[in-house]
Write a structure and sequence with these properties.
This is AEC family transporter. It is found in: Cell membrane. It comes from Gordonibacter massiliensis (ex Traore et al. 2017). Belongs to the auxin efflux carrier (TC 2.A.69) family. It contains 16 helices and no strands. With 328 residues, the chain is mainly alpha-helical. The chain has a single domain, classed as Up-down Bundle (Na+/H+ antiporter like fold). Helix 5 crosses helix 13.
Length: 328
């Protein structure tokens, strides 16, 4: 009886959740402060001309093409296999529903008179796509352990495809949409996500030295990502960021309304409480850091995007620990 009860707790994530519950709100707040300090350092480095546009783009390419994919693949090595294949598939579908809801929220907000017509699609982008790679996966790993990063990767799989398809459309101006190429839909993070799922579904044992290589490279993701997020904001002034009332509305929707709606969706179709918490926290992440880079590449309003990244990240320092408390 005792053993059966223990197995049931493990299946539904109860035993695994002891760690984050013990950490509490204070530890979640501490984790966000650590990440935010990295952003501030990146901001200062930009102001001191240690980082410029060229170096930021180069480091971003390294993160998105090398360190973050390694971080994702390494999660497949240590993933706990208590969730069934059916649960994983349902979780993936639930993720799609959450992203659809986030898009609808952004579309509704963007039609308010606070936003010019040219920025409406970008507003939808900002509520739909969060900083799940740069901030989300590291936060999930810190709160729930490395094995939880795999489940975050499953939930994040739609992001890796949608942000380079629908996302590009949302940030592009009319003339740039014609230049979108099908190969933009395939990227290193998407390939890494598929590889992590394959590792989960098979019993293939990866040699320890290979695992160590991926772990070591992946560990560089967090500090590099925070520096680049801060550096992307180095050209902005406080007045530019805080004077836009519409931006407050979009940012609050991203870090508060979107996760609330996602919690309702996930609670309806997902039984494992750990998976629910992971999904809600990922949907609560601030605006995706690559919004600025996509705007630069496809002719969008990169200044509005970078302001949205900063303001929503600042708000998330308070909202994410609060969310951990509410769902913990």
């Amino acid at each position: 009886m005792a053993e059966a009860a223990r197995q049931e707790k493990e299946h539904f994530g109860i035993e695994k959740n002891r760690r984050p519950v013990a950490m509490g709100v204070g530890a979640a707040f501490q984790q966000m402060i650590i990440l935010f300090v990295g952003i501030i350092i990146g901001f200062i480095a930009r102001r001191l001309h240690i980082l410029d546009d060229a170096s930021c783009k180069a480091v971003t390419k390294v993160v998105m093409s090398i360190t973050l994919p390694c971080f994702i693949v390494s999660s497949g090595f240590s993933a706990d296999r208590s969730a069934s294949g059916t649960e994983i598939f349902v979780y993936f579908l639930a993720s799609l529903a959450c992203y659809a809801a986030a898009y609808l929220i952004g579309s509704a907000l963007s039609r308010l008179p606070l936003f010019p017509r040219s920025d409406r699609r970008l507003c939808s982008f900002m509520t739909t796509f969060g900083n799940t790679g740069f901030i989300g996966l590291p936060v999930i790993g810190a709160l729930f352990g490395t094995e939880a990063v795999f489940y975050a990767t499953v939930f994040n799989l739609p992001f890796n495809f949608l942000v380079f398809s629908i996302g590009i459309f949302l940030v592009s101006d009319e003339s740039s949409i014609r230049n979108i190429k099908p190969r933009s839909f395939v990227n290193a993070c998407l390939v890494a996500s598929v590889a992590a799922i394959a590792l989960y579904l098979t019993t293939f044992q990866v040699p320890a030295i290979v695992q160590t290589c991926f772990d070591t490279l992946g560990s560089a993701t967090v500090p590099l990502a925070m520096l680049i997020t801060g550096a992307s904001l180095g050209k902005e002034t406080p007045k530019d960021v805080f004077a836009n009332s519409g931006l407050y509305l979009v940012s609050l929707a991203k870090v508060a309304l979107v996760p609330a709606v996602s919690l309702a969706i996930l609670s309806l179709v997902v039984q494992n409480p750990l998976l629910i918490k992971i999904g809600v926290l990922l949907m609560a992440m601030p605006v995706a850091a690559n919004a600025t880079l996509l705007c630069l590449q496809y002719g969008g309003n990169e200044r509005l995007a970078s302001r949205g990244v900063f303001l929503s990240t600042l708000l998330s320092v308070g909202t994410i620990p609060l969310l951990v408390y509410l769902i913990g």
